[in-house]
Specification:
By secondary structure, this protein is mainly α. It is built from 4 helices and no strands. It has one domain. Helix 1 runs antiparallel to helix 3 and helix 3 packs antiparallel against helix 4. The longest helix is centred in the N-terminal third of the chain and has 40 residues.
Length: about 120
């Protein structure tokens, strides 16, 4: 495995630091992107449902709602993946990232509950 980080802080050996901090951050970013893609695919399914059955599904809202998950992944990648930090920096950046993630989760829940009510038949 190539060197992802040139020097490890706190006196920890580089391979241990990569295994405990760097690699999990990349896995977190990959998981956030996969979650975002899952919601996008659900929005595409809702669009096709609307086209075929002619019922309004608000598929545009379903596609826009998970954007905060992608913003969270980008912030996490910049500060933790590329920057080599273990956690997001305190003092605003962490609140911004987690706020986007939380807001996106709530909006995605609302959008999917609306789509569920349409498919259920109210």
């Amino acid at each position: 495995m190539g060197h992802i980080l040139f020097s490890a802080p706190f006196g920890i050996e580089e391979p241990i630091y990569q295994a405990l901090a760097i690699i999990p951050n990349y896995i977190l970013v990959l998981g956030a992107i996969l979650l975002w893609l899952a919601f996008i695919f659900l929005g595409i399914i809702a669009r096709r449902y609307e086209i075929v059955l002619g019922e309004k599904t608000n598929w545009q809202f379903m596609i826009i709602a998970p954007t905060g998950i992608l913003i969270f992944a980008v912030i996490q990648l910049i500060f933790c993946g590329i920057g080599g930090k273990i956690m997001l920096p305190k003092g605003g950046v962490n609140y911004l990232a987690y706020g986007f993630f939380f807001l996106s989760g709530i909006l995605s829940l609302i959008a999917n509950l609306r789509f569920y009510s349409v498919t259920k038949g109210k």
